[in-house]
Structures are given as structure tokens and as C-alpha cells.
DNA sequence: ATGGTTGTTGGACAA
């Protein structure tokens, strides 16, 4: 079972790149972030033609997530619990093929010192509480998406320069570690300990892509029942080098079939 | 080098 996560930075501006990659790669489940589309205007038909069921959760201009699946999605939720007044479209979760899977777009949090950073930390605490609840089900759980978290110095081209950024500062990394401490496995690092320059995002500015000035901020967190089935987790840098690329590139998880 | 780029939208904001 292949599951891909990809911050596409506008699904409409990226439609040719995205459908081309899906046609070639054919993941069973696809998690999008930053669709930048209202739910009603999401290009559902283009993905149905590729054989996917489509769950899109959008808003005007910003944010937005989607979950595509070759098998039907059941028991869908479209909000992260815990702050009902939060209307930002950042979360969708469903059961597909016996796996509880989420597409999440964690707040960026910059600039630190504005309301954006405490919002990020509150959102992370809500995710921690919900992730704990999900473990109680005993189902395999896969939480994939753009976490806007650089977990460790090896995951950023310039750790000193990024020390106080909302994606890397100590408080952010500790909160991410608290989620892992519940019993979740970060799939890519578990399979590639010590690997450097394995990035999933390169800014559009200042030649970040040709200079390989990247960040690893797109992750899969796996419950123990999902981690037991972990086969592979790879970053596909191909799409980032294409014309009209997103600033993120897809990460692909592979889980073996249950015993 | 107080810069640079992309997307939504139709100016300013988010990343």
C-alpha cells in the first residue's frame, strides 16, 4: 500500500504536474496540502478519472487539504478536534482499507512573536491529544502531511541560521517530540538514520533549489500497528525540478499488507 | 545584497 503526501501549493496551478505524477506513480492514497481552493471548486473530476475517490476540505485563497484513495474512504472527519472556532482548512482524516489516515497542514507559525506562533503551538497540542486518542482504537494510524517542523539539525541546510525560526526553534521541536513519545514512528528518519540533505521543501527564492538549500518538513507519523508494516519511505525529488513546480516535493510511504 | 519568488487575487498577505 503506497501512500503519498505532497504540499502542492495550489491544486489548480499544479494540476498538470500533479496528474502527471499520479499517473506515473499510482499511489493507493494521496494526501495533499495547500490546495488553495474552496471545496466546491476542487478539480475532483480530474482525479476521479485517475481512479480516485476524493475528499477535499478547502477555503478561499489559503490552506486546504485533500485525501484521495483508490478504495472508498469511510468515517471522514474534516476538522482537528479541540478548538471549534478555528475555521482554517488544515485537516482531513478517514478510514481506507483498514487504515486510519490523515492529511494535515500544520500552521507555519512565522513570524514568531505574533499570534501565529501560539496558534501553531496550540494546533500541535490539539494534534497530540487527538493522536493519543487514535492510538486507543488499535487500528494502524498514518498521520501524513506538511508539519512545518524541522525535526533535527540534519533536516535543514543551515541549522544556525534557522535556530529561531518557527519551524525549528526548540519549543516547536519539543512539541513534535511529545507526539512521537506517545508511540509514533517518524517513518523517513526511522528507515534512513544519519542520512543528510534529504529535503522535501526548497524555497522559490534565492536559488534555493539549484543550491540544495532545503528543509525536511513533510512527514509520516505511524502508530505501532502501522510501523510494524513499514517497508519503505522515500522522497521523490523529481517533481521539484519540473517546470511550474510546487516548492515541496512528494514523500511516498509503503506499507506491507496485514498478516 | 535588509534582497529574492510564487499563488491568490486584483492590494496585501502567506509561505
Attribute tags:
259 residues; alpha+beta; Deoxyribonuclease I, Chain A; 6-stranded mixed sheet; 14 strands; DNA-binding
List the helices and strands and how they pair.
Layout: E1 2-7, H1 15-25, E2 29-33, H2 44-48, E3 53-57, E4 65-69, E5 74-77, E6 91-96, E7 99-105, H3 116-136, E8 141-146, H4 170-181, E9 185-186, H5 187-191, E10 201-202, E11 214-215, E12 218-222, H6 224-227, E13 230-235, E14 251-255
Parallel strand pairs: 1-2, 7-8
Antiparallel strand pairs: 1-14, 2-4, 3-4, 5-6, 6-7, 8-12, 9-12, 10-11, 13-14
This protein binds one DNA strand of 15 nucleotides through residues 9-10, 12-13, 34, 36, 60-63, 108, 110, 148, 203-208, 246-247.
Radius of gyration: 17 Å
Number of strands: 14
CATH class category: Alpha Beta
* H/I helix tally: 6
Low-confidence blocks of residues: none
Task: Report the span from N to C terminus.
Answer: 13 Å
Q: What kind of sheet is the major sheet?
A: 6 strands, mixed
Helix content: 10-25%
Q: Let me know the average pLDDT.
A: 98
CATH fold label? Deoxyribonuclease I, Chain A
In which order are the strands of the major sheet placed?
A: 3-4-2-1-14-13
Strand content: 25-35%
Question: CATH architecture, please?
Answer: 4-Layer Sandwich
Shape: globular
In CATH, the homologous superfamily goes by the name: Endonuclease/exonuclease/phosphatase
Tally of distinct domains: 1
Give a written overview of the molecule:
The chain has 259 residues and is α+β, with helices and mostly antiparallel strands. The protein has a single domain (2-255), classed as Endonuclease/exonuclease/phosphatase (Deoxyribonuclease I, Chain A), CATH 3.60.10. Helices cover 22% and strands 25% of the residues. The chain contains six helices and 14 strands. The protein has a six-stranded mixed sheet. A hairpin with a 7-residue loop joins strand 3 (53-57) and strand 4. Helix 3 (116-136) runs parallel beside helix 4. The model has no long low-confidence stretch (mean pLDDT 98). It binds one DNA strand of 15 nucleotides through loops.
